[in-house]
């Protein structure tokens, strides 16, 4: 993906409609049917896990869930559900940490993530490593705000990173998992993440989604998340 030509896909606000019509039944109807079916089948297993994690995280006195505004399909904002993995005053701690550490500030500016994030709690490190913090996003899937597979849901500030390719991101429904999560995750550059989103847009199919979900399961089992 390092050699991806980002000038190849011009900005097009009508891209979402063209994607649906171009990819046929699965993208237009089947993907949503697949999401709802898989979510309903998964709920009996996932709800007890979510409840247990909520209780464990609540032990430090803060909320069990963390809802953060992300950019959805067609640019519509939504609240993304997660098990809280950070301290209660996370934003204040981040600003203070970045002010004291120029190298960390540069990493944050480049990737919107930190390899060694001081905001993450002890249990937060575990649930992030296993991606258990993202399990409550099944609620977003049920409401149609997210899909099981799609681009990583981003915050508004990150859209500028996509430049003229922002429409490619907004043409899709963000995913609980996706190509980024199974293609190196934090070890790849932000430009490569964008390339992966565009690649998924071009090759979305049931076979692709099943392959990504299978690889995600392996990543969770072997705890390769960060």
What does this structure look like?
The protein is mostly helical. 52% of the residues lie in helices and 9% in strands. The chain contains ten helices and four strands, in the order H-H-E-E-H-H-H-H-E-H-H-E-H-H. The strands form two sheets. The protein has a two-stranded antiparallel sheet. It has a two-stranded parallel ribbon with strand order 3-4. Residues 1-11 have low confidence and may be disordered.
Strand-pairing-aware structural class: mainly alpha
Give the % helix.
40-55%
How many helices does DSSP assign?
Answer: 10
Beta-strand percentage? 5-15%
Strands in their spatial order, largest beta sheet: 1-2
Radius of gyration, in Å, reads 18 Å
Termini distance? 21 Å
Shape summary: globular
Low-confidence segments: 1-11
Describe the secondary structure blueprint for this structure.
Elements: H1 15-23, H2 25-58, E1 65-71, E2 77-83, H3 90-100, H4 102-111, H5 122-129, H6 138-143, E3 147-149, H7 159-162, H8 166-170, E4 175-177, H9 190-203, H10 206-221
Parallel strand pairs: 3-4
Antiparallel strand pairs: 1-2
Helix pairs in contact: 1-2, 3-4
Descriptors for this entry?
two-stranded antiparallel sheet; mainly alpha; 10 helices; 4 strands; two-stranded parallel ribbon; disordered N terminus; globular; 226 residues
Brief characterization of the structure:
With 226 residues, the chain is mainly α. The protein contains 10 helices and 4 strands; from the N terminus they run H-H-E-E-H-H-H-H-E-H-H-E-H-H. It starts with 14 loop residues before the first helix and ends in a 5-residue tail after the last helix.
């Amino acid at each position: 993906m390092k050699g991806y030509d980002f000038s190849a896909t011009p900005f097009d606000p009508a891209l979402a409609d063209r994607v649906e019509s171009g990819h046929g039944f699965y993208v237009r109807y089947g993907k949503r049917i697949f999401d709802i079916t898989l979510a309903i089948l998964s709920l009996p297993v996932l709800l007890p896990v979510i409840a247990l994690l909520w209780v464990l995280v609540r032990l430090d006195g803060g909320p069990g869930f963390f809802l953060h505004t992300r950019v959805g399909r067609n640019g519509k904002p939504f609240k993304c559900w997660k098990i809280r993995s950070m301290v209660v005053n996370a934003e204040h701690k981040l600003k203070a940490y970045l002010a004291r550490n120029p190298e960390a500030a540069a990493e944050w500016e480049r990737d919107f993530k930190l390899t060694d994030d001081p905001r993450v709690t002890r249990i937060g490190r575990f649930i992030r490593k296993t991606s258990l913090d993202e399990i409550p996003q099944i609620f977003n899937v049920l409401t149609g705000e997210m899909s099981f597979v799609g681009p990583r849901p981003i915050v508004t500030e990150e859209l500028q990173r996509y430049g003229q390719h922002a429409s490619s991101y907004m043409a899709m429904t963000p995913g609980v998992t996706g190509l980024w999560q199974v293609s190196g995750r934090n070890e790849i550059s932000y430009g490569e993440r964008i390339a992966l989103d565009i690649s998924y847009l071009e090759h979305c199919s049931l076979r692709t989604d099943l392959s990504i979900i299978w690889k995600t399961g392996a990543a969770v089992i072997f705890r390769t998340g960060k």
